Amino acid sequence: MIRSLPLLALFSCFLLPTTPLAAQSTTAPEQWYNFTDDGHQMFVYEVGQGPDTIVVLHGGWGAEHSYLLEPLAPLADRYRLVFYDQRGSLRSPAPDSTIRIDRLVEDLDDLRRSLQLAQLTLVTHSMGAALAYAYLAKYPERVRALVMSGAVHPVPFKSVPDMEYVREVWPQADSLELAETSNEVYKSMRIRAVEQMRAEGMVPDSLADADPLTTFRTLFAGSTDREYTRRWRIFFTAVNSCDVGNWRNTKGGMAFYSQAVADAILADTAYADQQAGFWPALKNFAGPVRVIYGTCDYVDPGAAIWQRTVAHLNDGELYVVEGAGHGIWSSHAKEYARVIREALGDF
């Protein structure tokens, strides 16, 4: 089933401090460290009340949890929300040699045991879905439900997903058309960023007649620190939102992301092998899977592939937010709060 949702243009901060979340809950948030079975200290942030616990998996690989605090804050009146920084991420530093997919899966299971939960309800964003797939493939009986926003597909992440998977869920799919659409989406993100930089007076006269893609490459190559940061934030907003004009509300920055974590995972040969089991694990999962997507999300423009994928799941449902991007809440905060509550309320 696919649920289309009305347009709601409200701006929200992408990365926010913990105070607003605490203020909305009668239970004070708690920060603690979970010691995994190999002695790694994993930062955990817990808030909210209610009988049901949700464990949140942030994106990346190599991002961290704080950008999801504000979007999920409205759930704290009904749920116990458990956020954590995955191994190697900002508040959970770890040697690169330990950053492997099997360790991240076991870290999540260590957290489950610490929380004394027989099963996990997982709320994920972006690449956090890949960790959910890996966990589901190993411990299907320990997963109660999945609610995924802007989820990567259950195959190796590429601009166009593996066509064997795509044709299974969408036999009429045209690989060339999908590749062209993906290429246009990636180009449009850069073009929208350059248009915003030009409107902000950040493009020098020497580039006045240059095409947007050349301008984009040139601007980042010759920036001062302050200019680079502003341009980075504009492009980051273009990646996550259809509306680049709200880039000043985008909090956080480059230090919140670790490329080394992504590099370590992608270099892990076990990760490449395990990805082959992601789609079978998701397809065979008996529990509810809820997928929330913005129509201009670059991972799956128009949620075209996910529309077909949910139909192949035992209990799958897609929620579509018109006009939203990869970070749905960055431009549709109230609508995202409503729809994720609705998705969780289905089970």
TrEMBL record:
Residues 1-22 form the signal peptide. Keywords: Hydrolase, Signal. Residues 53-327 form the AB hydrolase-1 domain. One of its GO terms (biological process) is proteolysis. It comes from the Bacteria. SUPFAM superfamilies: alpha/beta-Hydrolases. GO terms for cellular component: membrane. One of its GO terms (molecular function) is peptidase activity. InterPro entries: AB_hydrolase_1, AB_hydrolase_fold, AB_hydrolase_sf, Peptidase_S33. Belongs to the peptidase S33 family. PANTHER family: AB HYDROLASE SUPERFAMILY PROTEIN YCLE (PTHR43798:SF31), MONOACYLGLYCEROL LIPASE (PTHR43798). This is Pimeloyl-ACP methyl ester carboxylesterase. It comes from Neolewinella aquimaris.
